[in-house]
Design a protein that fits this description.
The protein has 418 residues and is of the alpha+beta class. The protein is 37% helix and 11% strand. α7 packs across α10, α8 packs antiparallel against α9 and α9 packs across α10.
Length: 418
Amino acid sequence: MAKRAEAASHSHRIYEEREEKLVSSKDSKQFRRLSRFLKPCAPNSTKAVTPSNAPLLSDLFPHTLQQWPSTVLFPGWKKPRKKWEEWIDRLAGKYCTIWNQAGICDAIMSSKFEVKFNKDLVLTLAEYWSPESNTFVFEWGEATVTLEDVMVLGGFSVLGRSVTRPVNGVLLGTVEEMENKKLELQRTPAKKAYHFNWMAHFMKLQNYKYEHVAFLSLWLARFVFPCLPEESLGKHVFPIAVLLSQGTKVALAPAILAGLYRDLSVLKSQVFKGEEIISVSSPFQLLQLWALERFSGVVKSPPKRLEPGEPRAARWSKVNGGISLPYVRREVNLAENFQPRPYAAEMTNWRHGSYYRAEKVVFYDKTTDQNLLSIVKCLCCAELVGVDGCKEKYLPHRVAMQFGIDQDLPGDPAECSG
């Protein structure tokens, strides 16, 4: 009963209800009704936390710009190798139950599909990035990648153990085993534990006790927390892989989003400094998936039909872009192109959460349901911590309409208590 009461009070802390005069986003007509707003809400316009006055890249670049002055590299954008799909299929039958328990089954399956890189789309979004609020500030308002997006599009859990929490006890021995295997590969002519030779090494071993941990280590290093030097396996993934191999749920989504926010801000900062070559290692395919889901018209090819059991990302596998910078700028700045609730819409072979009703999030006062607790987590202001310890502000109250909630004047995030 204590847990149920805690969940109930938590859900009421993150929003407030009141009758309010609202303005329709479609035709600007005013009407009154009982409304729900994400906290913190500003009591009046003078206390509202408005978007920063700091210039955006879109203020620096002319709208007719065809090519960025800086060369931007995205080493974290990985394609699935043929052998990788083979390794997934080989282990899925044995470990799928554990993957579901750890909340990573969809995320692993998503890594089998190739999201074709559309650089103009990603760079256009970066032109509107505001590091002060971690939102895109378009001509019509703010939007951003939320924890919900990372959870739905990437298949990553928002609940569970922090990625920065160390392992202990007998699990340390498994971490040391992976570290020793990395040293073993570094003594080969390749000199490094590259993704390809790591995969080849473990796939040819027969009945190796820690093959599952080795597999998860590569998955994390290649598709979740990629690092430099490119194609090299970092030690930072081993403790997380060990936990996931035991079926322990780890909160991957907050750490991934922290890294993406950070790299978008780094990208903006380095362009302003006039850097000629910029490299950002986060999995920016999540940003592209977010844009494909939310902006109608940014690609000319339609999404694919989901087959039974496929993750959401599969609908965009190998979909071609065929667009240019000026074209994308025009499309993202048309308010009618933005889809605030894509995941609530009915779709063949897609099962959205039970908390979606008529494109709105429905709150239940008493619940310990993991899916509902996940969406509550997505609605709370927070400090996101990345796998490398970076810290980023998460401010969902600034983009409440992305959760099917009415948008109020955003208040001071220091008042968040969720």
